Amino acid sequence: MNITHNDILRGTYNEIPLSRLTPETQEQVRLLVAAAGHASKVDEHGSWDFGIESNKKGRVESLNWDLYGLGNDVHSGKFLAIIQIRRFYRHKSSYYPEIRKNYFLLGHNEDNSVFAHSVESAVIHSAIRRGADPILACQNWIFGTDYAKVLRQGDLALIPCSKRPSAPRIAKRTALIEKSHQLKANILRQAGDQLYAKNPYLVHQPGTHPEVQGENRWYKVAVGQRADFWHFAAPTVD
Fold it and tell me: Residue 54 contacts by C-beta under 8 Å, 6 or more apart in sequence?
């Protein structure tokens, strides 16, 4: 299935009503959201229990979600979706309600496990206003560059450099990144926390993601950023 953002009809708040999608796409979105809500790698426990609870004193708490983007990854072609998770809470009937929102990019890893990556609401709504693809806008924001140009392994990316970096060369030729990505290269250079690699080779030690081999050129090693989030709906570990 290939979906373009220009084919999508949105609601009053830029959400995408599921009723405006084909039954097949509706089911695909619902299954992805459900799988993310019960993923074994969720950072916090019990964060995706949708529904409403109330009592006679006027206390109300509800958790629901809306769809804000869907499409296919430019590299893998896998289905992706952006959802907003919204929590409504009122302690008593005479109190003002508290409404909090999180946004997530959802998709499947190479081993078919589901990820939920927290993203900035401003990135999504800006893309929608500009008529741009919110999926690609989120991916560009995550890695801080044109996502189409990167080599990606989970939440780690190799970004091609236009010239040799000026960072000092280091003696070692291997590095462990994020405690799970083993990087090997002909040459490594480092300035502060920023690492650069020539002819890099990445191995994901848990084996969730396939090995990645760069060309015989320089790459910037980038860890994908995540948006801050309210802990009623937490991200998964990619």
Answer: 60, 61
Nearest in space to 201 (alpha carbons), one of 225, 224, 219: 219
Q: How many other C-beta atoms can be found within 10 angstroms of the C-beta atom of residue 73?
A: 16
Per-run averaged pLDDT (10 residues), the chain, 238 residues: 64 94 96 83 56 84 94 95 92 83 93 90 97 97 96 94 95 93 96 96 91 95 92 61
163's tokens: 């010239």
Contacts 24+ apart (CB under 8 A), 230-233: 230/87, 230/100, 230/101, 230/102, 231/44, 231/47, 232/47, 232/63, 232/85, 232/87, 232/100, 232/102, 233/47, 233/48, 233/63, 233/85, 233/87, 233/102, 233/104
Q: What is the token pair recorded at 213?
A: 């081999």
C-beta of residue 184 within 8 angstroms of C-beta of residue 198: no
Contacts of 174-180 with CB under 8 Å at 24 or more apart are 177/221, 177/223, 178/223, 180/154, 180/204, 180/205, 180/206
Considering the entire predicted model, what is its pTM?
0.89
Distances (CA, A) of 73 to 57, 79, 160, 195: 47, 7, 19, 26
Distance CA 39, CA 46 (A): 11
Yes or no: say if 33 and 65 are a contact pair by the CB < 8 Å rule. Answer: yes
The DSSP bridge partners found for residue 170 are: 188
